[in-house]
Amino acid sequence: MPSFADKAARFAELHIAGNPVLLYNAWDAGSAKAIVAAGAAAIATSSWSVAEAQGFHDGEELPLDVAEQIISRIAAAVDVPVTADFEGGYSDDDSQLADNAAHLFNQGVIGINFEDRVVKGAGLYDLDRQADRIAAIRRAAGQANLEVFINARTDLFLGQGRDPEQTVDEAVERAKAYAAAGASGFFIPGLQEEDLIGRICREQSLPVNVMVMDTTPTPSRLAELGVARISWGPQSYLNTMAALQRDAGEAISTHPVTP
């Protein structure tokens, strides 16, 4: 079994602009093992999928202790690096936020997605406040002597109703501030325009993560644009549930139960 440090270093090395790491997101230990068996070099969870699989909605509705138990089981079930979708960290208090993140790291999770959306409120944290929150997580990891991957997610392009063209400059500004605060990567879910993705890749230093959506450029095109990480978010769960429903329907219709 590779050490935490080995997994963390390997995960960081996988983020190569032009040759992105592909993360087909998991939601429990079984799905993670299946994805690794398919050849995945790392596992990332999707908070939406983890919550839905337990009968909850996304947005930190899944209790933190349940989320931690599921994520820790994933980390224990596979030998590859595991990064967890940690939403907003389940706290607005920096000390509690740091403790929450540290607990995940102590379970063997080598990275997190950490978003700037105010999960239980409206809009986004302002740039300086979110940078402080990232810095609190980085300090907590440093105190434990752990080099973790903080994938700083901005929700500027997801659910905010903003014009992407008019928003990209703010995204670059946030990426630079998040990098200075200790972020390892920059996640831009919702952005699908090639030229804007390319600009963000060029105009700031963090490896860029794009989430596959209906009109997202192909992985090969994203690689050409300089993307270093591609994830599927809830799509893997939705695909699996659709296949399960189809198969169940076929089985039930083949063997109908008559009263």
Description:
By secondary structure, the protein is an alpha/beta fold. 48% of the residues lie in helices and 11% in strands. The chain has 10 helices and 8 strands. Strands 1-8-7-6-5-4-3-2 form an 8-stranded parallel sheet. Helix 7 links the parallel strand 5 and strand 6. It is globular. The mean pLDDT is 97.
Low-confidence stretches: none
Strand order of the largest sheet: 1-8-7-6-5-4-3-2
SSE series:
HEHEHHEHEHEHEHEHEH
Report the end-to-end length measured between terminal Cα atoms: 54 Å
Proportion of strand residues: 5-15%
Q: Which shape, going by the Cα principal axes?
A: globular
Mean pLDDT, as a whole number? 97
| Number of distinct beta strands | 8
Residues in helices, as a percent range: 40-55%
Q: Keywords, please?
A:
259 residues; alpha/beta; 48% helix; globular
Concise account of the structure shown:
The chain has 259 residues and is an alpha/beta fold. Helices cover 48% and strands 11% of the residues.
Helices and strands in order:
Layout: H1 4-13, E1 21-23, H2 29-37, E2 43-44, H3 47-53, H4 64-77, E3 82-85, H5 94-106, E4 111-115, H6 127-143, E5 149-153, H7 164-181, E6 185-187, H8 194-203, E7 208-211, H9 219-225, E8 229-231, H10 235-254
Parallel strand pairs: 1-8, 2-3, 3-4, 4-5, 5-6, 6-7, 7-8
Helix pairs in contact: 2-4, 5-6, 6-7, 7-8
